[in-house]
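User: Teach me something about this protein's shape.
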Amino acid sequence: MLQLYVTHLLHYVGNIMKITKYTAVGSSKSGRSHTVYSSVTFEDGRKHRLIKRAKEGELEDTKRLWEEMLEKGLNPTDEEDERLYHKLSGKHTIKESLQDFYKSSIVTPETLSSYKSKLKLIDDWYGSKFVKEVKAHDVEKILRKKVKDGEFAQTTLSHAKKVFTAFFTWCVDEGILETTPLNFKKSLKSDKDTKESHVPFADEHFEIIIEELKKEENKFYFNFVNFIYHLHLRPKEINNLKKGDLDLVNNVITIKSSVAKNDKKEILPIFPALRKIIDTMNLGELDKDDYIFFKQYSDGRKTQLSKSYISDRFRPILKNLGLYDDTGYDLYSFKAKGNLDKLDKMGWSLIQLQKCNRHATVNQTLTYLKNIGKVTDIDNLDSIEL
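Assistant: First, the predicted structure itself:
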């Protein structure tokens, strides 16, 4: 591991324009501040005089920092070089590292808010500390307090562990740490009940919700949830549907592998009930590469919907109907309701339901149905007593 750490250091220094020669760091006073300076030569032969202002009380620390950075071939007036110096010297703070982590390829636009909500806890507690000073028990202290205060259910706790692990693993990959300090104890658990979600709509509630969504001001959302109800698509998959993905001659929809739940391209049928909805969506006005659900601006621009765009607007609708608190209803409730209606009202078989849900096995479909409270015929079967 030490060899790996040294390799990281060499990698970083090798990617910058090193300073090969420099004069002793000097300073001159001007009023209440000082000017710190040094003449340097870069590895490409360029010569430059570096200058920086320093307050009275910071002079010695600034000069010491300059000397240490110049010795490592780094430019003390360059912000990126200074950040790199702190990395190489183990003086990178949690706050600084988090800012770099959020810009890394590990964090996507979809996961950014989720990561920030959890990592803000570490920032609030230990933001000014050097990363190398934060130990496993420090991180566990945060999580144990959240559990003790009843703020973290087990699912939230598990997610926080994964996010913290991703951050400290990134610190190792970046050469900020030699090894990750995290090693969560098995005793770190939560017994708080997880808030119910994805609960299938009760028939009487479903009628009220559909009636509300059919109103002109909510028609956009009505069209969207039809894709969930009929095809059991995830919001992310619907957000990424383009006009060219819909073959209205053969009545099929293509879900690209980049967004499909199974990471492979899937061709799904357009049921007659969904086709009626699609025919009202004026798709003829769109180009092949336009998203079928989009946000349009006053200047005519069309942009893809954000991951939570529909759910953020469906939630207030449920609240206004008095059907949000303690119901477990959300966008995925349309998928659950669609499954139950196909099974109970349309007479679908488990095999047909498996294919519509794109489950790998019937057993996976049975597990899903149990999770939404459905007991199937197969669950009540008996066998011959021996």
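Now, about its shape. Residues 1-15 have pLDDT under 50 and may be disordered. The two ends are 61 Å apart (CA to CA). If you'd like, I can walk through any region in more detail.
User: That's plenty for now, thanks!
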